[in-house]
């Protein structure tokens, strides 16, 4: 399957779109969004991602756990996950509470990308 991957600039743009007025824009001092994206690209390159649900989940895990932004890491992870699904013509009607709980668990390392992908497939 041919995946449509995101560039760092795409993720930074999405990050800026989820920030509320007064929140801190920009990258965190000691983190790198490049490293998070490299995790996704590595898995795609070595055929470790089977479908778009796994791709979207991997982006969400990588971004939420990288803490690459000064503010809005979990919202960015969710927005990127949803964007990847939509880009591949998959629409999932998330409820705010449900997806909020899932992204928090993902950011805390309580859910890995395979568990998140399984959850996405069930929606």
Q: What does it look like?
A:
The protein has 123 residues and is an all-alpha fold. The protein has a single domain, classed as Fic/DOC protein, Fido domain (Four Helix Bundle (Hemerythrin (Met), subunit A), Up-down Bundle), CATH 1.20.120.1870. Helix content is 62%, strand content 0%. The protein contains six helices and no strands.
Give me a quick take on this structure:
By secondary structure, the protein is an all-alpha fold. The chain has helices spanning 8-18, 33-45, 52-66, 73-87, 96-107, 113-122.
Annotate the secondary structure layout:
Layout: H1 8-18, H2 33-45, H3 52-66, H4 73-87, H5 96-107, H6 113-122
Helix pairs in contact: 1-4, 2-3, 3-4, 3-5, 3-6, 4-5
Q: Which word captures the global form?
A: globular
Q: Just name the CATH architecture.
A: Up-down Bundle
Reading off the top of the CATH hierarchy, the class is best stated as Mainly Alpha
* Helix content estimate: 55-70%
Structural domain tally: 1
Instruction: Enumerate how many helices there are, as a single number.
Output: 6
H/E element sequence: HHHHHH
Radius of gyration, in angstroms, nearest whole number: 13 Å
Number of DSSP E strands: 0
Beta-strand residue fraction:
under 5%
CATH names the topology as: Four Helix Bundle (Hemerythrin (Met), subunit A)
